[in-house]
Amino acid sequence: MHGPKAYGDLGGLISERLKHPKKWMIRLALWLLSTWFGTFIFCGVASISSKFPYFQSFSQISQQQKEEILLAWSMSFIYPLRMLFKAAKLLCLLVYFSQVDDENENLTWEAIGYPGPDPQFRAQTSLQPKLSQASPHGNRRANGEGGGEDKEELEVLFGPLYRGLVNMNLPSDMVADTLRRSGFFTSVGRKDRTNAGNGSSSSFSSPSLVIQCDAVVVGSGSGGGVAAGVLAKAGYKVLVLEKGNYFARDNLSLLEGVAMDQMYLSGGTLATDDMGAVILAGSTVGGGSTINWSASIRTPQHVINEWSSARGYGLELFGSKLYREALDAVCKKMGVQSEIDEEGFNNAVLRRGCEEMGYPVMNIPRNSGPDHYCGWCCLGCKDGRKKGTCETWLLDMVNSGNGVILPGCEAVRVLRKRNKRNCRDTATGVAFEFERLKGVKNLCVIESKVTIVACGALSTPALLKASGLKNANIGKNLHLHPVTMAWGYFPELQWPDKGKKSYEGGIMTAMSTVNVDFDDKGNTSGGYRYGAVIQTPALHPGMFSALMPWVSGADMKRRMCRFSRTAHIFALARDRGSGTVNSPSSISYRMEAGDEVNLQKGLEKILHILAAAGAEEIGTQHCKGKTINVKKVSYHEFERFVKEESAKPLRDLSTQICSAHQMGSCRMGLNPKESVVNQMGETWEVEGLFLADSSVFPTALGVNPMVTIQAIAYCTAQSVLQLLSRKSSINV
């Protein structure tokens, strides 16, 4: 395979994209394995040959011995060896099955029954050369400087947001002119300030560009997008900073490796410091709402009760009329509904298995229509029918004429000044960087009346710390909604219908709460529930192979040849355990024993569901890779398998744990000793600095968080509107 466009190659991924704090261990291990003495240290007598010179480097060992060594590492009592195996497995398989050649093909896809990008979308790939020329990040036409025909073409190609995108790659004078035409006062420095990322006072005092606005919003996802839309529609001038770039509709690749590299934090290679959990988070215009799985579930009532009641967290906001109005408003904006015209492979298996077992199963509300049958939405929505913030709140902002988006720009510090009147700091804006030339960063400043940080639970704490905030809770209390999966193989000639494939159809349409015990309105039989909901994932070949157990090359080949007819179902825990965000790439997290038990109970239910739905063979993601042919064993043999597999530990790297939801790292509360923000979303330390993302959750939520993030951001935006109104009155 030549000219890969996904991660390039494994070496390039490790050296350029991987940001894990233990990366030095991987590099050291790879170097040692290239030597005979290092190989002997890692592999022992298995690396010794019967022929002179006896000692071998890893590359000289036979294929069979290599596989035996790797398998031994996966179950070693030496934790770093298990970490090394886990990292090697994840990275190698992810790259191998997701990289593409110059024709956007992977030689394995035909063998495993995978078409690559959505076949309905493939015809549009011929537009790619045209897209690169018309990109809003590299062409003046995208800033509205072309004729009417150009504008119409760009809207077809990119969607309506292109009119609100500012191309920071243009010379500063041209950027300033674009911003002025949008109603923002802008001044240009004497010369572009480059390599100013050291954060020195001189860097911030002489930026290449200074922009003034009413509100700056850092982040464009479910939190930042809502806040920006509400403020802009109210008539305030809003600037949105987004670290990621803009990819929408026909500008998408729908290639797994390419999309993860472009639209996910750290290219989709993020993991906790101990490799205990693989973490997926969006990093693109629209944030997680651009690449999530459409689930739009309201805040469960038992969570509202816990957050609002005196015996819980005492946050009256969540029991208020305003919060109920916010839930209604965001669901209406996204067109949330629960109907399904046709169910995809994984969800059909989940629903049928639940019905056969007598487990509760319900439709998942989604921000897309009943006919939205697309399994590629985790790589972006090709037609805009999934109503993330790019198609809703950010579009409101752009259409209002009061806001613009600056993609490819990373906030490095919240600026503040001392208020002599009350001896407190007040936020005055944000300093941000962007890369105009490779390796050369420019520093700019936004001066604002209000600053809203909505970078997500992994990035918001780092920005606050870099800005000098000292609250001890910043970065603490991180929850991950840990997930573990099981799988079932359904041969082509049996149900579900022969034409159905595991990667097609609505990603999430069915859900079971058999392990949670609350109804479709969120009511519980009493108390606060910390069980595990049961749902289905989106797994394309790269992630599928990275998560499946590896016991040998031949076994992995067999598993991958069954890819298109292998259903996955997962259990998602509302975790009591928590971790700490040290930086966006350094995350420490330890699952509590109670969370492990809830996932094990969920795993037991899932194995029963898969068998009841008609799976021929089932298994988990435990590293030993044990499976059972349901059709060929007795009832007692089956039950013994289920009991043994679901009881295996989940906290020792033997089973892959994943997270697609991060929350709570700057939680909301009643006092600064226990929280970072108050009920208005304003930080206790700095006036005029608001947080509007999942980091403010008081606890883990227990269900997909998009609606709850948007509802909280909507409420926070109302507080910001009140503050801006007061400031306007004072100025008058």
How would you describe what is shown here?
Helices cover 34% and strands 16% of the residues. The N and C termini lie far apart (66 Å). Strand 15 and strand 16 (586-589) form a beta hairpin. Strands 1, 2, 3, 7, 8, 9, 10, 20 and 21 form a 9-stranded mixed beta sheet that branches. The chain has a 5-stranded antiparallel beta sheet with strand order 13-14-11-17-18. Helix 2 crosses helix 3 and helix 12 runs parallel beside helix 18. The chain has 2 domains: 10-98, no CATH class; 159-188 and 207-731, 3-Layer(bba) Sandwich (FAD/NAD(P)-binding domain). The protein contains 24 helices and 21 strands. The chain has 732 residues and is of the alpha/beta class. Its main location: membrane.
Look up the CATH topology of the largest domain: FAD/NAD(P)-binding domain
Radius of gyration, rounded? 26 Å
Largest sheet: 9 strands, mixed
Roughly what fraction of the amino acids lie in strands?
A: 15-25%
Poorly predicted runs of 5 or more residues: 1-8, 125-144, 192-202, 518-526
What structural class do the secondary elements suggest?
alpha/beta
CATH top-level class of the largest domain: Alpha Beta
Shape call? globular
- Measured distance between first and last alpha carbons: 66 Å
How many runs of DSSP E, i.e. beta strands?
21
Number of helices, where a helix is a run of at least 4 consecutive DSSP H or I residues: 24
User: Architecture of the largest domain, according to CATH?
Assistant: 3-Layer(bba) Sandwich
Mean pLDDT rating: 90
CATH superfamily of the largest domain: FAD/NAD(P)-binding domain
- Please give the domain count: 2
Catalytic activity: a long-chain primary fatty alcohol + O2 = a long-chain fatty aldehyde + H2O2
Family: Belongs to the GMC oxidoreductase family.
EC number: 1.1.3.20
Function: Long-chain fatty alcohol oxidase involved in the omega-oxidation pathway of lipid degradation.
